[in-house]
Structure formats: C-alpha cells, structure tokens
Design goal:
By secondary structure, this protein is α+β, with helices and mostly antiparallel strands. It is built from 7 helices and 12 strands. The chain is elongated and about 105 Å long.
Length: about 425
C-alpha cells in the first residue's frame, strides 16, 4: 500500500483513539457521580440544620425579651447550648461536604490530566506523520495513485483529518483551561476546609464554656431565685464601680485628634461585623439608655448588635490583631469579658467585646471578612450581643487596670483604654443597612 493511503489509515486510528473513552475514565466518571450524589445529600442536610438554627435563634430572642430571672437565665443557657450544638453539626456536615468536593475535584483533575496527555500524545504522533507526508510534493502524491479518483478521495480524507486536528487542538486548549480552573477550585476548597476545622474547634470550646456557665450559675445561686437576684444586684454595683474607674483612667490619657489621619465620617470603609439581618440594640453616644444613667452620665462608647452566642463576627477590614483579652479571668471584674482589638491600615481600630470565643491571636494578620470571633455574653452583659467600638488607632492603648490604679477591682486584667476624643461612631464608617 502506498504511504499516503497508510497515512490516512494511521490518522483515522489515532483520531479514533482521541475520541475513544478509556475504561478507567468510565469508572472514574461513575465515582465522580457517586461523590456528587453524596455532596447533594450533605447539602440537603445542611439546609435542614440551617432551619434548626433559625428556630433556636428565634427562641433565644423570645427568652431574651423576658424579665431577668434565674429560670430565664437557665432557659437561655439551655437554648444556647442546643443552638451551639446545631452550629457544630452544621460545621461537621460542611466539613464532610467540602472533603467530598475535594475528592470529586481530585478525580476530575486526574481525568483531565489524562485526557490532556492522551490528546497531546496522539496529536504529536499525527503531526509527525503528516510532516512526513507534507514533505511530498503535490505531483509526487498524485503520481503515487493508480487513478485520479483515488487521488482526490485521498486528498479529501486528508483535509478532513486536518480539520479534525484543528478541532482537537481547540479542545485541548479548553481542557487546559478547565484543568487550571479545577486546580484553583481545589485550592480554595482546601483552604475552606482548614477554616472549617478551626471553626469546629472554636465551637466545641463555646459549647464547653456554655455548660460550665450553667453549672457555675446553679452553684452560685443554689437554684434559688432570691440568690440569683442578689447576685445580679452585686454585678450591677460592681459594674457601676468599674465604670467610674474607667472614666478616671481615660481622663488621664492625653490625645488630640488630627482628622486628617482617619477617613472622613460618612465614608463606608468597613463592612458590617455580622451577617445581615443586623439588629442594633444600642447606638453610639448619648442614647436614651445612656441618658438614663446606665453609664454614669457618659456616652455609650460603641454599638451593640443582638446576636445569639456563637454567632460569627467578621473583620470589617484587613488589619493586624493588636491584642486579645478576657477580663473574666479576674473575679469581680465585670468589664468586656473576652475581647479582640484589631488595628486597620486606615488609622482606625475596632474592638469586639463580650465574646464567647476569640478566633484570632495577637499579631495575626486578618483579611476583610475573616472570622475573628464568636459573639457571646461574657463580662458585664445584659444579654448575648456583640459590642463593637471604633477607635482612632493612635488614641487607644492596651494596659492592665493596675498599671493606672493600684487599687482596682480588675487588677491585672488587660483592657483597651482611650481618651474620649479617640472614640468614633461606628455608623460613620459602615455602609447603610
């Protein structure tokens, strides 16, 4: 048989190879489909848990609206525990779903790599053979044929093969693009998996704290309402004394604000620290609650947002965690409880307080939208919420209470302190709700 005829047959065989679906590819496709079904099942379960969490949130709002009694406190703690357990179940399922997604992408990447290699090998072989054939002149190919009809048939087949080659090269380019996309998705899912596992650890810590808080409350009150009310009044008195201490300390701090060092008020440089919908329970400044004497005649130095224990709080902007603390480590120090302070590159700092669990450590770099804490009810708090303060960075410092005063109810507890001029209205730097 002539070279040209054998070449055509050779090309056809190779093209068939390109279009053929290998056995292991079919098996892998079956595995991918099975993983996809499992992912869908996990996503369905996630939707069910989301509904369960929403029910607990609604129940907590009802409990929070009741009069502060021992039974109310116990009911709240029990509902919070169930809600956190649901958060943990959600995270577990999300971890499993993400792990399945990574497995699926790994299989798809392997199959895409195989398809790319198969296409490349076949294309190289065809190109080599076509190069040999193309070195023959038109007259040489013509003279090799027994008749003109055979020559034109041969020539037409070659043109078809060349067109198929162009199509396969285009497909190869698409395969390479798909490969890069899947690799990127896989990297993203792996990072999400790391974040989810970290959240899982944090949420279990919140659950342990919730159980310990209930046990501590029952031990302190001996399950008697009168004892609970006495304990509550002592906390209020200790809080009032602490507020006077803080006012005295902050009056010693010298600071003059240069407005050119921070964004102009009304510039939305931050994202909201909680997911919407957001329910603000107290604004910044001389609010009605503040004027009632709640802060000894002073303004409310931040903004409060209602949120069940364990709600994720997010970095409003990239920055560096300056410090974290827990004033509850000092008995009788009814202050911020667990808190996180973040310095941002725009001259402002943000405080997250009354937390159930910080999710960051001092010196850590954070990006906008990173989880930095979980809301709670620690320190002096009348109910679960996020206290969010915005400072001018240069005007806030972190020190122990006893670095300012020798005799103090908070002793060695760390806390942010700032001059009045350093406090800013958070709404001045947030987008409209």
């Amino acid at each position: 048989m002539k070279r040209c005829v054998s070449s055509v047959i050779f090309y056809m065989i190779l093209l068939f190879t390109l279009f053929a679906v290998p056995t292991h590819f079919s098996i892998a496709q079956s595995d991918i489909q099975q993983l996809q079904r499992q992912i869908q099942e996990k996503n369905s379960r996630l939707s069910e848990i989301e509904e369960e969490i929403a029910q607990y949130k609604a129940a907590l709002e009802e409990v929070g609206a009741e009069k502060s009694t021992l039974q109310d406190a116990i009911n709240r703690l029990e509902t919070e525990r169930k809600k956190v357990q649901a958060d943990i179940a959600y995270t577990e399922n999300k971890i499993n779903a993400t792990d399945l997604q990574i497995q699926k992408l790994t299989l798809e990447i392997e199959e895409t790599e195989f398809a790319i290699k198969q296409s490349q090998d076949a294309i190289r072989a065809i190109l080599r053979e076509m190069y040999i054939s193309d070195n023959q002149s038109f007259i040489e190919v013509f003279l090799q044929q027994e008749n003109i009809a055979a020559f034109w048939n041969e020539y037409a087949e070659l043109e078809k093969i060349k067109e198929s080659m162009r199509q396969k090269i285009a497909k190869l380019k698409k395969l390479k693009t798909a490969y890069e996309t899947k690799r990127s998705e896989s990297t993203s899912f792996k990072q999400e998996l790391v974040n989810l596992k970290s959240q899982y650890v944090d949420q279990n810590a919140i659950l342990r704290n919730s159980k310990a808080e209930k046990a501590k409350l029952l031990a302190a009150t001996k399950n008697e309402e009168a004892n609970y009310q006495t304990l509550l009044q002592k906390k209020i008195a200790a809080r009032d004394k602490l507020l006077a201490e803080v006012r005295d300390i902050e009056s010693q701090i010298q600071f003059i604000l240069d407005p050119n060092t921070i964004p102009a008020p009304g510039t939305p440089v931050f994202r909201w620290p909680l997911e919407k919908p957001i329910r603000i329970t107290q604004y910044f400044g001389y609010t009605k609650f503040a004027r009632s004497g709640a802060y000894g005649g002073n303004q409310h130095n931040g903004m409060d947002m209602a949120a069940p224990v364990g709600t994720k709080a997010y970095a409003p902007l990239s920055g560096t965690v300056r410090m974290t603390g827990n004033t509850d480590l000092v008995p009788g120090c009814y202050s911020w409880g667990k808190w996180v302070l973040i310095d941002h590159p725009n001259g402002l700092s943000t405080l997250f307080a009354h937390l159930s669990q910080p999710a960051v450590v001092p010196g850590q770099k954070v990006k906008t939208g990173d989880v930095v804490a979980y809301t709670g009810n620690t320190g002096y708090s009348t109910g679960p919420h996020l206290h969010y303060t915005v400072y001018v960075t240069e005007g806030v410092e972190v020190k122990q209470f006893n670095q300012f005063k020798k005799v103090t109810s908070c002793g060695a507890a760390l806390s942010p302190f700032a001059a009045i001029e350093a406090y800013q209205d958070p709404l001045d730097f947030l987008p409209p709700l």
